[in-house]
Amino acid sequence: MKLALPFAAAALAAAGFAFTSLPSPALALEKPVNAPAAQRTAREGAGLKTAIFAGGCFWGVEGVFSHVKGVKSAVSGYHGGSAATASYNRIIAGGTAHAESVQMTYDPYVIRYDELLRIFFSVVADPTLRNRQGPDVGTHYRSAIIPTSAEQRAVAEAYLAQMERSGIWDKPIVTRIEAQRTFYPAERYHQDFMAKNPSHGYILRWDKPKVDALKVMFPADFRPEFLRDG
User: Which residues are designated catalytic?
Assistant: First the structure.
């Protein structure tokens, strides 16, 4: 994050956010959190990289990262299960082992992996909630980090440990690192859902506030236009 903590709190308050550093599970995702700047920065070298995050309903995860400079693609999909059950209707019925996820490509010379992690835990996912985010409950809504390289895994492990030590969250961190498996893109109607359905009730209630918080908390990383993939 490019914003100092006291200024971030003031800016959020001025923008109408009820800022807190200790979010209540009952108000999950309603209040942005100043996640710490990573002590272990990513060193991934040149060229586009791939990252996969699971953080509840993929509409909001995709929506936030589609507004981050340096992200070249953000695709909603399913990770952690098999091809036979990688469909929305099957996954929401439970028992498939998938998580709703977003796979991104990004330029690490514009936005580093550790910075993506900080954005994720600041405005996207509450890391203290097990198998749920916001109003959505089930293992397919779990929060997870899926590294696609040894460097990403090292950064993610260090960051989760740093989050635990930070004292910012008043409950244990339950977000886990999961081994990379096949990522299955979701049905076409899920892609760019926020951009295609800006007046949808779920988007207005749960996801637009995340993008608004991104704009206030990470102004140097915010891209006003939505990056469309589909």
Answer: 57
Q: What single-letter amino acid sits at 26?
A: A
Among residues 47, 44, 14, which one has the least CA distance to residue 117? 44
Q: Does 169 map to a domain?
A: yes
Tokens coding 165: 């030590």
Distance CA 194, CA 187 (A): 14
Confirm whether 224 is domain-assigned.
no
Identify the helix (H) or strand (E) that includes residue 54: strand 49-55
Backbone angles phi, psi at 187, to 5 degrees: -55, 150
What single letter denotes the amino acid at residue 16?
G
How many domains is the chain built from?
Answer: 1
- Give the 3-state secondary structure of residue 51: strand
What would the pLDDT profile of 188-210 be if each residue is shown by its tens digit?
Answer: 999 999 999 999 999 999 999 99
- SS3 label, residue 206: helix
